[in-house]
Amino acid sequence: MTTIRQRRVGKGTEAAEDQPSEETNVKPDGKIPPGPPGGKLWNILSITVGGIVAISLGLLTSVYVATLHENDLWFSNIKEVEREISFRTECGLYYSYYKQMIQAASIQQGLHGLVYDNKTESVRTINILERMNVYQEVFLSILYRILPIQQYLEPVYFYIYTLFGLQAVYVIALYVTSWLLSGTWLSGLLAACWYIANRVDTTRVEFTIPLRENWALPFFAVQIAAITYLLRTHLQPAQERLTLMAVFIATFLFSLTWQFNQFMMLIQALALFILDCLDMLPTAKVTRLYIIQISGLLLVCVLQFFNSMILGSLLISFNVSVLIARTIQKNLKKGGLLNRLGKLILHVLLVLGLTLLINKFIKKILNLESDEHIFKFLKAKFGFGATRDFDANLYLCEEAFGLLPLNTFSRLSSTLLFYVYGFVLFLLTVAAVIVAFRNLRLFFFSSISGSNQVQLKEKMEEYTVTLRPDAAYSLVHTILFGCLALSTMRMKYLWTSHMCVFASFGLCSAEVWKLLLKCLHLYTSQRTQVIKYSIPIITLLYILFKFWPGIMDELSELREFYDPDTVELMNWITSNTPSTAVFAGSMQLLAGVKLCTGRTLTNHPHYEDKNLRERTKQIYQIYAKRSPGDVHGILRSFGTDYVILEDSICYERRHSRGCRLRDLLDVANGHIMDGLGENEPDLKPSVYPRFCEEIKKNLPSYTMHFTRVFQNKTFHVYKLAKHK
């Protein structure tokens, strides 16, 4: 902890001393002025110092989250089963494939077990590499097996240290993006400090380590940094080719590691489309980015054995539609003002129409229904009719898929991040509107020829603001992902991290301060430079003095993992059931059962498959009002040997009436919900009591089908009779 404190203070001091060195880098066209003979040396020194600070902050963040994880669980001291239980819900499922590959007799056998898996879903053989994004677990397991580190590092530590190491990549990418936008590494320093100070709202890696987003978001941040550099003017051809290669690699890795990649990149494609339509980005570069997105996703599709959900993604349909529409409308950006507006509206309608047509055609050909639950959820969420669909309601009732809580903004405001973000967002939005309108007017003036056209353009540019392509992209990116975060809390991490970049860029940008001071009639170049450096330094000092003691207290707080009931259950399953036994229960618990015991499951939390969703709904009848014969028949149809009932679900109080799992099942089954409150008029009382409650009474109608074999304060395990 002392080391962390010393490194953090050292960086803050360096930043304060070296800020004037960045002044020579601030040029709208991205060129470095000739300057005095020592200018080049000073620029190299500045870049070197900025790079060292970036790497140091990245490593500091890795150490910080790793220490929090250790202190929260006492991970180094607890048993292996407790470590595995700490990987809750789907995290445990993903980690189980890493463990499976490590324990396989050979790499070939491990891969064969994943491609022909019959333990994740009973009575079915599925291809894990096709269904799930687990190539990162495969790669890490192979790396662990071939490197000479087995004697020094346990497999679990190799895994979690890799994830914590990716946090360093994440922070460095955010730092570099802000640096590229503002021209000074002081901006990157501020972005990284904001990311750390707002850790609760910028990452959850320390307690959901194997979650797909923790693998994917660092690569997404690298991709955004590369796009930011690509959109700079005056790039040499070699620089542009290398940058495009970096964008492709980052896009590919992002797509490979997260099943929701297509939706995030669709938002990114929409941002590019909007800016291209308003002529705020170079069309040639936008086209290359569309092609990179399609290529990266198709390459992932091949690696995932032609996963149909990827082929039927809206992203591919949208990008292909844009390219087709642009071929049809070759003179989109020519003509008078009204003609240009008409073409633009027609272009947007054509792209949307083609997207829906192509997507519907692909899904019809492939008979694709894997992602239908997402669209049902979106339809219900945004008020396009109530639904009794079990899957849609399961998402709607989860807090993570609800609206962003208002207390998020109070936390972000406590670090001044939200205030600065709002200030920069307002200024650049105004600037973007002016630039977009000016671009449309310039198309009108393009019909004027000769010296009059040149004079009119020069006069307009003299009195209007400018917005660089990279800043324009960052603006639309943050607006669109902000809308996503506001509507779905789970996606806030995509927004808040970029919020740190966007706010720090604005606070350290000469263009932003120049625009503001000109509006107030206070502009001088000296005043702009003073404000550009003094305000960020004051903000950094505020963050340091206000949050440093809290961070130190957080790092000194020691806790310990404690879940004796789940540990007892896993130990009992390992010791008292056959290795081929099939278990049914809640998705979240069964992921842990697979990881800790290796037993076969009936269902699991990776929900992107229609058959699995239908199977899960059937398995969950153990918490509905059904007869013991019906429940037994359903469970046996999936080969179930044991069923685990959880009191926390059967007697759930976490959700309000209407959102408890038993309520969702009752409504889906057409039954009246328990408790006081209104019911829809067509719902009927069930003739059977709730299964999970009634089975505990050991009535003959239940004991003939189920025998209780394990019980503690939280779990009840029943063995199923195998009579016909």
Automatic annotation (TrEMBL):
Cellular compartment(s): Membrane
Record-level Gene Ontology MF annotations: mannosyltransferase activity
Keywords for this protein: Glycosyltransferase, Membrane, Transferase, Transmembrane, Transmembrane helix
Membrane-related topology note: Multi-pass membrane protein
Family affiliation: Belongs to the dpy-19 family.
Top-rank taxon, per record: Eukaryota
Protein's UniProt keywords contain Glycosyltransferase: yes
Coiled coil (residue ranges): none
Basic residues composition-biased segments: 1-10
The name this protein goes by in its record: D19L3 mannosyltransferase
GO cellular component: nuclear inner membrane
Keyword Secreted: no
Region annotated Disordered, chain positions: 1-34
Major subcellular location class: membrane
TM region positions: 41-66, 156-174, 217-235, 296-324, 344-362, 416-437, 471-489, 501-524, 530-549
